Automatic annotation (TrEMBL):
Positions that bind heme: 462
Organism: Salix viminalis
Residues annotated as transmembrane: 21-41
Lineage: Eukaryota, Viridiplantae, Streptophyta, Embryophyta, Tracheophyta
Obligatory cofactor(s): heme
Family to which this protein belongs: Belongs to the cytochrome P450 family.
Protein name, UniProt field: Cytochrome P450
Key words of the record: Heme, Iron, Membrane, Metal-binding, Monooxygenase, Oxidoreductase, Transmembrane, Transmembrane helix
């Protein structure tokens, strides 16, 4: 899914905005807008704002924007210690509500699930996702339910994922061969992980169609565009904080995204055209060799009342490419860093792999279901470093009461799952990476227990859990089984987090791989 939170301001919001319009024009517009905004706030305050959650006092016009810390997950957690598990922030003309406890998360995501099932779509994300027609940003309703059904019950079902395992296996083996060629020298673990996951995702999307050199050049094209797009999605945007000014696009972010989106659209059109010409006339084979084939098949056989359109297909492809690659690769990099930081965890994981797989064999996906300790490593990684520390913000369709406070219609709701996962009243020694806490535990990824819900919960829970679990476990198992990993002499693992569209390591993990399998031919 497209993982986008378009609020990652720097320590001084106003000083870090990059605007194409002149400063004087912006100041004039903001000053004019301030009068209307301030009057609106005054009127609103007289209509019962005392029932709103507590929160820090803001400044006229910009509210709390100037005081935001770039690491929003830790900043929100600090505010919760002062103001409680539900609090408010005024972000320009947008009211944000931050929830930081399991009980309140349950109220939002379960008790009032339908009310909070919508999104407040940022301006840049709307451009990137064909007007918000993807599964991440689409409003709750018949179209969203149709997309959810296509993704969860069909495209990302276990049977469909099984059918494209060969494509995942090929890309992982290619990476193993590359790392083996660099044995003894340092490599950027995060970079190689991202490239692998991106190749895995694009191979599953149209791996039965694109072959040879074209597939490699397409991967390079995607890497450039994804980097530019995620940067725009992570930029603070006046159009989101002050919707009345959106028409001016003061920072030019919509214009820039409008320049990137056609590049994706052209790639998707090219792949769709190639796919439509790929099947021989009269071919009655029902086997789907990749996701694009599957989606086109669903489109042709779709529901008349709520059809899957070509635009929907391209929006889903966008979700898979942008969301699927960044989230999984960052989570795997965190896992490797944590395991390297605790040699006893590395040893236990490799002992389990040696017992289940053996040193004379390569890891296969069929092995991962027997690797209980590896599963525990994944769960512990997502506890300490949830890929979406604030989930994707929800937007209530009507005013309701949460925790005894009024949550207005149209406000932006952040669920600080990162804070819940590190709550000392829930977790023993919460800052310690300890996979053993998940051995024989009840916790899973279903979102039914609000002490642990790294993929969210309720109707808008992540649609790609099954694929994310397979990709994470298969690739992590392969890296730990095929190689020993060490840091350059004198260096220590840096686990400092950086908040952005998704959570990532602040400094890339650079390590030296050493082959550990008995047969060198396995690396070819």
């Amino acid at each position: 899914m497209l993982l986008s939170i378009t609020m990652t301001p720097q320590s001084n919001f106003l000083e870090n905005l990059e605007m194409d319009a002149s400063t004087s024009t912006i100041v004039t517009l903001l000053a004019l807008f301030a009068i209307t905004w301030y009057a609106w706030i005054r009127v609103k305050s007289k209509k019962g704002s005392s029932s709103l959650p507590p929160g820090p006092r803001g400044l006229p016009l910009i509210g709390n924007l100037a005081s935001l810390d770039p690491d929003l997950h830790t900043y929100f957690a600090g505010l919760a210690r002062t103001y409680g598990p539900i609090l408010k922030l005024q972000l320009g003309s947008k009211l944000a509500i931050i929830v930081s406890s399991p009980d309140l998360a349950r109220e939002v995501l379960k008790d009032h699930d339908i009310t909070f099932a919508n999104r407040d779509v940022p301006a840049a994300a709307r451009i990137a996702t064909y007007g918000g027609l993807d599964i991440a940003w689409s409003p709750y309703g018949p179209e969203w339910r149709m997309l959810r059904k296509v993704c969860v019950l069909k495209m990302l079902s276990n049977s469909t994922l099984d059918s494209v395992y060969g494509l995942r296996r090929r890309e992982v083996q290619n990476t193993v061969a590359y790392i083996h060629s660099k044995a003894g020298s340092t490599i950027n673990v995060g970079e190689q992980t991202f490239l692998t996951i991106l190749n895995v995702v694009t191979s599953m999307l149209w791996g039965g169609t694109v072959q040879g050199e074209e597939r490699g050049s397409l991967g390079a094209e995607f890497r450039r565009v994804v980097a530019d797009m995620t940067e725009l999605l992570g930029a603070p945007n006046i159009s989101d904080f002050f919707p009345a000014l959106a028409r001016f696009d003061l920072q030019g972010l919509v214009r820039k995204m409008s320049g990137l989106a056609p590049r994706f659209d052209q790639i998707f059109d090219r792949m769709i055209e190639k796919q439509l010409n790929f099947d021989a006339p009269g071919d009655s084979s029902s086997e789907c060799k990749d996701f694009l084939q599957f989606l086109l098949k669903v489109k042709d056989e779709g529901d008349v009342k709520t059809p899957l359109t070509m635009t929907h297909i391209k929006a889903l492809l966008m979700d898979m490419v942008v969301g699927g690659s960044d989230t999984s690769s960052n989570a795997i990099e965190f896992a490797i860093a944590e395991v390297m930081n605790k040699p006893e965890v590395m040893r236990k994981a490799q002992d389990e792999l040696d017992n289940v797989v053996g040193k004379d064999n390569m890891v296969e996906e069929s092995h991962i279901y027997k690797l209980a300790y590896l599963h525990a490593i994944m769960k512990e990684t997502l506890r300490l470093h949830p890929v979406l520390p604030l989930l994707i913000p929800h937007c209530p369709s009507e005013t309701c009461t949460i925790g005894g406070y009024s949550v207005p219609k149209g406000s932006r709701i952040f669920i600080n799952v990162w804070a819940v996962h590190r709550d000392p009243s829930i977790w023993e020694n919460p800052m310690e990476f300890k996979p053993e806490r998940f051995l024989d535990s009840k916790f899973d990824y279903s979102g039914s227990d609000f002490n642990y819900f790294p993929f969210g919960s309720g109707r808008r829970i992540c649609a790609g859990i099954a694929m994310a679990e397979r990709m994470f476990l298969y690739f992590l198992a392969t890296l730990l089984h095929s190689f020993d990993w060490k840091l350059p002499a004198g260096e220590k693992v840096d686990l400092t987090e950086k908040f952005g569209i998704v959570l990532k390591l602040k400094n890339p993990l650079v390590a030296t791989p050493t082959p550990r399998l008995s047969n060198p031919a396995l690396y070819r």
